[in-house]
Specification:
Order of helices and strands: HEEEEHEHEEEHEHEHH
Strand content: 15-25%
Strand order of the largest sheet: 7-6-5-8-9-10
Largest sheet: 6 strands, mixed
Shape: globular
Distance between the termini: 31 Å
Radius of gyration: 17 Å
């Protein structure tokens, strides 16, 4: 769920501006999963643009306080959300930790890096939500460490129904700055894509695993 339409459209605008999100209906990308996709998202790119990373940092931080109250700790999901998560924690003046996909096989064998105490309130920062599997894996690790996960905030979501179902099943509140619907609206309005390309993008979003580019 987006916080509000204005934030969603503004965030979509800046992500398209720096090519953190690319739309290419006529020449689809191939994801690591093997899916063909007319969209590719790499929100780590925003870290290279100070005005935009500051906008994302401040907007995230303000919405976190409004939605969840000021947390004791911010947790970033490795690796994509480590950078922006740390910036949000710095803005809020709270500790930062990050969560690996799995525990290290050597050393202290940590999955959670950094210091947090049992019972502390944590908000999880993520850069991108697709199916939600990796994001919820991080929530599971935090809960197993007896931390109180207040919710998750992400920069962008593809808006897949499977993600909505997964977050509901695990009883995790998810808020995003922007989503696929707002992105398409912004892209059409700014002539980034044509009206005729909207159907291709809409068809993919409705069934991404089975979609085949023409």
């Amino acid at each position: 769920m987006i916080f509000n339409k204005h934030t969603a459209r503004k965030t979509a605008e800046v992500l398209l501006q720096v090519n953190a999100i690319k739309l290419s209906p006529s020449a689809p990308f191939t994801w690591a999963s093997g899916w063909k996709s007319p969209i590719y998202c790499d929100n780590r790119i925003i870290l290279s643009f100070p005005p935009i990373r500051n906008y994302i940092r401040e907007t995230m931080a303000k919405h976190i306080e409004k939605q969840y109250g000021k947390p004791d700790v911010i947790a970033g999901v490795a690796t994509g959300a480590i950078g922006i998560g740390m910036l949000v924690a710095e803005y809020l003046g709270v500790p930062f930790i990050y969560v690996r996909p799995e525990a290290k096989s050597h050393g202290r064998q940590n999955q959670i890096e950094g210091f947090a105490q049992k019972g502390q309130n944590v908000v999880v920062v993520e850069d991108l939500i697709s199916t939600g599997k990796s994001s919820l894996n991080a929530v599971k690790a935090l809960r197993e460490a007896q931390l109180n996960v207040k919710g998750m905030i992400a920069i962008f979501s593809y808006g897949f129904s499977v993600a909505t179902e997964n977050f509901k099943k695990e009883n995790v509140s998810l808020q995003t700055l922007s989503n696929y619907e707002s992105l398409i609206e912004q892209a059409v309005e700014t002539n980034y894509i044509s009206q005729s390309e909207v159907k291709t993008l809409t068809d993919w979003n409705a069934n991404p695993s089975e979609w085949n580019a023409i």
